[in-house]
Specification:
By secondary structure, this protein is of the alpha+beta class. It has helices spanning about 1-10, 35-45, 75-80, and strands at about 15, 25-30, 50-55, 65, 70-75, 85. A six-stranded antiparallel sheet has the order 1-6-2-3-4-5.
């Protein structure tokens, strides 16, 4: 059963974080090829596997993310374009 859940999660379409609407929660799946970018985001607490909620995305400025429960983080559109995300998968294999 667990193998099936992984397959379901892996089959979810990936999209850039910059395309996620405000209010949606997503899982960080991949961070661009640039090692410096990955380190910078890791220093900010953004790592692959983390769920974040998009608080604000006006499609014309920085994105505001809710990281964990009490932190907010603003990231530029260029960074957000290089971060691939998908809807989080619950333990029973359904989108949350």
């Amino acid at each position: 059963m667990r193998h099936r859940d992984k397959h379901t999660a892996a089959s979810q379409p990936l999209l850039p974080l910059s395309m996620v609407e405000a209010g949606q929660t997503v899982e960080l799946v991949s961070i661009g090829e640039c090692r410096r970018l990955r380190k910078r985001l890791a220093d900010l607490g953004l790592n692959v596997g983390l769920n974040v909620r998009v608080v604000q995305n006006s499609f014309a400025g920085p994105l505001i993310l809710a990281v964990r429960e009490d932190s907010r983080l603003a990231i530029g559109r260029g960074m957000a374009q290089r971060i691939l995300v998908r809807p989080p998968i619950s333990t029973n294999g359904h989108k949350e």
